[in-house]
Amino acid sequence: MDGESSRDVGMAMESSMWHTCNRSHNVSFFYHLVEKHVSDHWRTRDVLVMVLGLTVCVIVVLANLLVMVAIFMNRRFHFPIYYLLANMAAADLFAGIAYANLILNTGPWTLELTKQKWYIRGALIDISLTASVANLLAVAVERHQTIITMQLHSNMSKRRVVLLIICIWAVSIIMGLVPSTFWNCECDFDDCSTVAPLYSRRFLIFWAVLNLLTFFIMVAMYTRIFVYVRYKNKYTSQHTSEMQSHQTVVNLMKTISMVLGAFVICWTPGLLTLLLDGLLGKASHANTYEKFCLVIAECNSMVNPIIYSLRDDEMRQTFKWILCCICRKCGRQQREPSPVEIDSPVSKETLTCILKSEEKVVRKPEDTNDKEDSWAEPGVV
Predict the structure, then answer these.
(1) Are 118 and 27 in contact, with CB atoms under 8 Å apart?
(2) Domain G-protein coupled receptors family 1 profile spans what residues (predicted)?
(3) Spatial contact of 145 and 154, defined as CB atoms under 8 Å apart
(4) CA distance readout (Å), 301 to 252, 319, 371
(5) Residues 6+ away with beta carbon under 8 Å from 102
(6) Angle, nearest 10°, between helix axes 115-148 and 80-103?
(7) Contact assessment for residue 127 and residue 204, using Cβ atoms and an 8 Å cutoff
């Protein structure tokens, strides 16, 4: 009996020590705890992954910066839907920076990170994903309100759009700071994730379920919109102007739906991996395929500018105008530029540039009102 009681006391003391909240442990301790192996030297594969990853990050940042500049420069894009798409591009640009930071703090460098830097590394990824999801949800709500009334753009004021964008980033930052502030496993080692060793498995379950549920809501919302548009199309007047307006609405809807579809396809594998890791822990073997899911998610930030280029003629012409101006500016040596009004991407100088590249005539936009809460006249999308 004495032997059994002493053994029970020893197990109780060991369990008590194990569950004591000791925040002095470093990153290496948690990686060894969940048995997540990190190489202590640089391999050829690691260097190759870093170079390719950083190359993709540079492309992501530049491509999404191009989208933001295009929407800012072209007054035909000065509508709530395009401001939200610009904010989504900002989220993708932020994701490119977050992935670059992840790549520069991975491999053998991982175990050298302080906990604060490790949390920042994860928070940047969390913020970019939350911002993208929140933007897509805002776009879905905006499209639902406008398409049901068969309008191209909503009447939301600029102040409301700015306030909405601020709220999106505020929520994203809060979600990114949650794991580092209180919802981690530093006080409960049994709750540590295998994919992100300092994160709580319960937080990963909550985060994955919340995002997957949001995906489902957005897909259901767009499905309802398409059913309504298809039903409405049967009773649309055959007048040319009305048909063109209706087709413009449908084309914009298809573009946004492709953006949503690409996002869901690229992020669902990663979210399911986090969900399985949260539910099963080591039994999920999530570490074997987490890197593939991360690569797919990273590529999503590069997809949206491609979709805009393929689907939106106006956006494509604006891209060409911007790139043409950059090339022309770089090509000038001692020649002074002639004064050009940067009011819209279809000025005289721009028209010459675009005609040379595609031999297409671009319609000159009409003057627009610059009042604070009014939007420019819509162009052809």
Answers:
(1) yes
(2) 63-308
(3) yes
(4) 20, 17, 33
(5) 121, 124, 125
(6) 160
(7) no
Burial (CB count <10 Å: 0-12, 13-18, 19+), residue 336: exposed
363: tokens are: 């319609």
DSSP class of residue 369 equals -
Q: Which long-range contacts (CB under 8 A, 24 or more apart) does 369-377 make?
A: 372/158, 372/159, 373/157, 373/158, 373/159, 375/78, 375/79, 375/80, 375/153, 375/158, 376/75, 376/76, 376/78, 376/79, 377/76
What is the Cα–Cα distance from 279 to 336, expressed in whole angstroms? 65
* pLDDT tens, per residue, the chain with 381 residues: 445 444 543 444 444 444 457 777 888 888 888 888 877 777 787 788 788 888 989 999 999 999 999 999 888 888 888 888 899 999 999 999 999 998 888 878 888 888 899 999 999 999 998 998 899 888 888 877 777 766 656 667 788 889 999 999 999 999 999 998 888 888 888 889 998 889 999 999 999 999 999 988 888 888 888 787 777 666 655 555 555 656 666 777 777 788 888 888 988 898 999 999 989 888 888 888 887 888 888 888 888 888 877 777 888 888 888 888 888 876 664 454 444 334 444 444 444 444 444 443 334 444 444 444 444 433 333
Question: 100, 57 in Cβ contact below 8 A?
Answer: yes
Phi and psi at residue 199, to the nearest 5°: -80, 150
What is the model's pTM? 0.75
* Half-sphere exposure of residue 296: CA atoms within 13 angstroms, side-chain side: 16
DSSP per position, 15-59:
HHHHHS--TT--HHHHHHHTT----SS--HHHHHHHHHHHHHHHH
Cα distance between residue 208 and residue 202, in whole Å:
10
The residues near 12 (Cβ < 8 Å, ≥ 6 apart) are none
Residue that is written with structure tokens 């540590």 in the block: 192
Contacts (Cβ under 8 Å, ≥6 apart) of 250: 229, 233
Cα–Cα distance measured from residue 303 to residue 298, given in angstroms and rounded to the nearest whole number: 10
Query: In this structure, what DSSP letter does residue 196 have?
Result: S
How many CA atoms, within 13 angstroms, populate the side-chain half-sphere of residue 290? Answer: 15
